[in-house]
Write a structure and sequence with these properties.
Length: 608
Amino acid sequence: MLSAKASTIFLAIVLIASFSSAAVIGTSSIQAPAVLSPENIGSLTQITLTVTNGTGEVVIRGPEIVGNSTSQSALSAAVYASQYLGLQFKRYNFTYDIANNHTNVSGPSAGAAMTILAISALSHQPLKKGFTMTGTISGNGSIGPIGGLFDKAGAAASGGLGFILAPAVPRASIEDEIYLIAQDFYSIPVVPVANITQAVGFAMQNKSIAGNQTVFNLYSKYNITELKQANITCSNSCNYTPFISLLNSTFNITSAQVDSIAGISRFDAAHGQMMSALQQAVGTANKGYLYAAADMAFLDYVNAYVFANVQTNQTQMQTILNGTNKTCSAAPPQLTSFNYEYAISGELRQTWAKTLLNSTISEFESAGNETTTDDILLAAHDAAQANGWCAAADSLYAAQYPKGAAVSVVGIKSSASSAIQRASVFGSSLYLDSAISAYGSHNYAVALISADYQNALGNADNEFNLTTQQLDNRTISMLREPFFGAWPSQFANEAQFYLQQSDIAANNSSRHDYAFQAYSSAALATALSNDTRLIYNSLSSTGPTTTVPTEVQSQRQANVSLNNLYIFIGAILIVLVAILLIVFLIVAALHKSRQRKAQRTRGIRRKR
């Protein structure tokens, strides 16, 4: 009997210990957004976390197959949540139940939501009702980028949720713009959060989303009233007529594109901002800041194009990209000393468009059936830029120029090569890739100018942390000298535009931002001025219309000098021979005259 009683007690102890080890610490649930493949539509999935005493085990149950990235996200979420609360991860087990039976789940975008669940379950703080969250999680608690935000916001709105937490993205980026489009299209606040601490404030505490949703400004309100008339001095090739034609054509395509979204009620606020931006561009142009105005209108065009393509499907966007790539092929006019700057600028923009389109088409095709609406909007953004550049090239090619002899650009191969090498320090970019492409096609002028963009802007970025006064001083110093060529002088005018905006800005942050933009434009104006002068001095009326390698041009110059010497020596020899011939003829004539006289004298003597 004693033995039986002891056995019963032992079994009870084991059962109690077993029950204690599996005791539930807490649970929490969230409706997490996902994008279903291959349909690529947004969907909400219930995720429930149960935390028990344990040994640090993390399990995902429900789906038939769970991808490695999802499993790793669940582990990272549990580990960080424990650290966030000052607890020991190894003392708990975490079981995530995903209500997606008989499906495959992959991707890391639920990491932030899993972290919030773990914090809620471990701390016994309930999550707010009516919200969802997407984003990756890192070891330091930062919330990283995801794909398919537009589709996920649509799923949240369809599910009746009040807001969606999304990873913070760079201010004024295309990703930021997509957040705004999703927010306006589905009428659901998209609240950016950079880390778990910020997310906890909205998900578990009383932080209001009011004023914290996505704010993407499609219209930067400049002070045009107090703006002084542009007065930068241009020292050569200062014909602005083609620039005015380009500006007007940019206004026209922008106005048409902005009008295309006027009937979409969900975009009324965005349409109003775009109209204001276009009107401001016209006012800026009237003050003589032609490039600054064209730049404003160009950005306005791109924004309107993206909004207008919000319901474009994958097949339609593929057609748009291929069509733009095919039609961006206008041939530049024959270079002359009057049109060289605009013709090269047109080729530059065509090169940018082709480089961008080839990259976008490749990425779009590789995404295949996993293409989301975000991907389509990103492609629309690239297509808009390419469209704008190609339209600019067409305008520059069609402009009227004074007649002049045909020329070609010679002797700048080494300069272009050096510029590309300097630009490569700043990493891969559209400017560098375009410069390399142009160089490979022996278009050294375009290669040089495209590399100038990378070098000037890259060096300027390194000076971003200078004070506003330091930036202003450097800009003013660069603007003192005349600029060589129409394009450099217009970039200098843009620098002057932003310099004035900095002077009259309302706060220190805006003053610094404008000062930096002024400095960047001035740096680009200086680089373009130097190399426009180099190109102008390299124009040659002889040889083929394509650019000639430096070594060939050097040999040509040597040959020309040698030929001139030969011609000079030959001319002297001809003159000497002519003189000798004349002397010989005179001597011969005198000698013959004496002979005849002697003969006559002898004849007379005989007759006598």
